[in-house]
Amino acid sequence: VTVVVGYIPDKFGDAALDAGIEEARRRSTGVVIVNATKGDALIDRRYLGEAGMTGLEQRLADLDLPHEVRQAMGSDVAEEILKVVRDSDAQVLVIGIRHRTPVGKMIMGSVAQQVLLDAPCPVLAVKPSP
Amino acid sequence: MDTLNLLVDGLQSALTLENLAYASIGVILGTFVGVLPGIGPAMAVALLLPVTFGLEPTQSMIMFAGIYYGGMYGGSTTSILLNTPGESASVMTAIEGNKMAKRGRAAQALATAAIGSFIAGTIGTLLVAFFTPSIAEQAVKIGAPSYFAIMLLAMVLVSSVLGASRLRGFIGLFLGLTIGLIGLDLSTAQPRLTAGSLELADGIDIVVVAVGVFAVGEALWTAAHLRRRPVDVIPVGRPFMGRGDWGRSWKPWLRGTALGFPFGAVPAGGAETPTFLSYVTERKLAGRDSEFGEGAIEGVAGPEAANNASAAGMFVPLLALGLPVTATAAVLLAAMQSYGIIPGPTLMADQPELVWTLLASLLIGNTLLLVINLPLAPLWARLLRIPRPQLYAGILFFAALGAYSVNQDPFDMAVLLVFGALGFAIRRFGIPVLPLILGVILGPLMEVKMREALDLSGGEVSGLFNEGLALFVYALVVLAIVVPIVLGRRAAPERVLEQEEVDR
């Protein structure tokens, strides 16, 4: 019973992380942070490297909150996030959402949309403060 | 100063707008394929072969030479920024280069690699221009038996000296030789290994073999290992060097050049050995309390220079003897053949314009590389974000297009798939590609020489041994087989380390 945060190292991910931490405090539970990649390119900026992981761990350690960071790889990033949601029996899933043009959405698909539609729990979708 | 005049003439014909454009395309494409691991200049040239049939031979050779140099350079970018060498010749660069990058000296590492490559490539190309004519002059006098022996030596060296295992090397070589045998016998027109198929009677086009083994094979291999953890990239700005870096770099550049060129020029060359030697030399010269192990600029400057000098050295046997010593050179040789140019000692005399324009455009391509790569390094690093499915879909498209366009024969598509499967298999079982492709391309040429020698002697086997040079080369062949076995027994542990890197 916990709060799951879909995290990528950019402002959208940070917004989701902030909201997730707040949500976990409110519910007095812990956070599970999931960072997933398709793993089909040599470099994926949305996947945490060594430095990114230590940075994130550091930030969480300062919080005094039960936490766990998971990294996942699979053909479908949304499915990898949902797997973690199911595994950890999450109360709520927090994700960051962004604008996508219709064409961009058609070509790239939308992880957020798929997560929203398929999640077994309520989803909290946040935007970075402008 | 005859050579100098010819080179200036070559420069003049290379400096037309059109040729410069082809050189730029080649250099950019070469860097592109060099940066991406798994895709090398050999594959790029093989893929482009059919596309360039419409061009003048000189222009396509200019482009291919650009791809070759560019590929050698591009590999260093990946090594330094990712610790993932783009091609085997950059393995040694990765050791110190990546450590430099991790310490925030990526810009200096890239700069010393680029400038070192430029200097080594330029010196190397000039050496090619000065050596090749005199070697070719001597080579014309070589008779068929000696020629046969030299080719045999090249094959043995490539199969047994390079790579992790002699057995695997020879498996590759014999696979290649077998493929080269398919088709009609040269003098009696008997079908060989055709299984009664009419399509196979013409032999298998080298383009189809090369595209299948390099492009389709690599695509299948990548498809089988599609998902891998993304690696950490080190952000980089525009490469530059401080005064101290220049002072520490110039000696390794020159030493690397001196090591790389001769290794590139002999059949056992390849860039792996000289880059390794250069790295070891620099580490020894730097002494104990050096930065080695924590990102020493010397460890980048030396191997990168050696790498490009050996890339240049490769042109000596290719132009003077028609003898390829790297996979890319083998494909270049196939390109020449497809234009009806006969590579060999007579090339210099028959096609002086082609040779000198090519050499001149190598010099130009080298300069272009420096101009293009120094400012564009951050852009090249972004290429690494291309998802593999999209990238390899494009490669497969070009592979199929190329293989079909050679003869406009659907049968070639089937052959392409067969060689794609073979390419996958040799990667799976760790069989080196170079002996295989050398067998395919050099095998038939070697047979011509053997037949010539035997015809002269009326079928007597002694006809193969009746020249002093041939006997001398056979002695070298024996040495090439025996010496590694003896050395391997003595210095086993050290070799293992080297072999792992070479085998990549």
Q: Would you kindly provide a written description of the structure presented here, covering whatever features stand out?
A:
Chain A has helices at 11-26, 50-61, 77-87, 102-108, 111-118, and strands at 2-6, 30-37, 67-73, 92-96, 123-126. With 130 residues, chain A is an alpha/beta fold. Chain B is mostly helical and 504 residues long. A two-stranded antiparallel sheet of chain B has the order 1-2. Chains A and B meet through loops of A and loops of B.
* Largest pleated sheet of chain B: 2 strands, antiparallel
Assembly state (oligomeric): heterodimer
Distance between the first and last residues' Cα of chain A: 32 Å
Give the ordered list of helices and strands of chain B: HHHHHHHHEEHHHHHHHHHHHHHH
Computed CA radius of gyration of chain A, to the nearest angstrom:
14 Å
Please provide the count of β strands of chain A: 5
Overall average residue pLDDT of chain B: 83
Uncertain runs of chain B are: 494-504
Largest binding interface between chains: A-B, 16 and 18 residues
Give the key terms.
heterodimer; A: 130 residues; alpha/beta; five-stranded parallel beta sheet; 5 helices; 5 strands; globular; B: 504 residues; mainly alpha; two-stranded antiparallel ribbon; 22 helices; 2 strands
Topology:
The complex is a heterodimer of chains A (130) and B (504).
Chain A: E1 2-6, H1 11-26, E2 30-37, H2 50-61, E3 67-73, H3 77-87, E4 92-96, H4 102-108, H5 111-118, E5 123-126
Parallel strand pairs in A: 1-2, 1-4, 2-3, 4-5
Chain B: H1 2-14, H2 17-35, H3 41-48, H4 57-82, H5 91-102, H6 106-140, H7 144-160, H8 166-181, E1 183-184, E2 191-192, H9 198-201, H10 206-224, H11 243-265, H12 272-286, H13 298-313, H14 315-321, H15 327-338, H16 347-350, H17 352-383, H18 388-407, H19 410-428, H20 433-456, H21 468-490, H22 492-502
Helix pairs in contact in B: 1-17, 2-4, 2-17, 3-4, 3-10, 3-15, 4-5, 4-6, 4-13, 4-15, 4-17, 5-6, 5-13, 6-11, 6-13, 6-14, 6-17, 7-8, 7-20, 7-21, 8-20, 10-18, 10-19, 10-20, 11-12, 11-13, 12-13, 15-20, 18-19
